[in-house]
From TrEMBL:
Its EC number is 1.16.3.2. Keywords: Cytoplasm, Iron, Iron storage, Metal-binding, Oxidoreductase. Iron-storage protein. Coiled coil: none annotated. The keyword DNA-binding does not apply. It is found in: Cytoplasm. This is Ferritin. It comes from the Bacteria. Belongs to the ferritin family. Prokaryotic subfamily. InterPro entries: Ferritin, Ferritin-like, Ferritin-like_diiron, Ferritin-like_SF, Ferritin_DPS_dom, Ferritin_prok.
């Protein structure tokens, strides 16, 4: 049975994962609007993945005897300076999510809630992958700079990555 304080923290994470999904969905619309079709597909696939993260938490809270709560979700940014700016923001956002997951894992451990601590290990591993993924894309964009041909190639690569998501 989850302690009320853990339910509250897990529900905050549910909200954050929802926000991540909305943020990436909104980013996919920006990419589409600017003609980055591969990036749009990639962000759309990633928005779906974030919904999966939300659902996994939602199910866990319910199964562990808590009540999953869906709160108000903040509107995401919809304006970006460039594809590089957008990807830099995804990377920053994933770093924030990692910090939140680490805080949650710490709270579970210090409350001797080993079941939740164990459940959260999936997220710890996932955040490692997500940071690696977005950092890798950002590094490539930084390498090509504002050069149109380079960005076109990256967009093509993102279309391939989207299929692998
Ligand atoms: Fe992108 O990992 Fe969930 O939020």
């Amino acid at each position: 049975m989850l302690a009320p304080a853990m339910v509250e923290k897990l529900n905050e994470q549910i909200n954050l994962e929802f926000f991540s999904s909305n943020l990436y969905l909104q980013m996919s619309a920006w990419c589409e609007d600017k003609g980055y079709e591969g990036a749009a597909e990639f962000m759309l696939a990633h928005a779906d993945e974030e919904m999966g993260h939300m659902r996994r938490l939602f199910t866990y809270v319910g199964e562990a005897g808590g009540l999953p709560l869906i709160g108000a979700i903040e509107a995401p940014d919809h304006e970006f300076e460039s594809l590089k700016d957008l990807m830099a923001k995804t990377y920053q956002h994933e770093q924030l999510v990692t910090r939140k997951i680490n805080e949650l894992a710490h709270a579970a451990f210090t409350n001797q809630d080993y079941s939740t601590f164990n459940f959260l290990q999936w997220y710890v591993a996932e955040q490692h992958e997500e940071e690696k993924l977005f950092k890798g894309i950002l590094d490539k964009i930084e390498l090509v700079g504002a050069e149109a041909q380079g960005l076109y190639m990256i967009d093509k690569e993102l279309a391939v990555l989207a299929k692998a998501e």
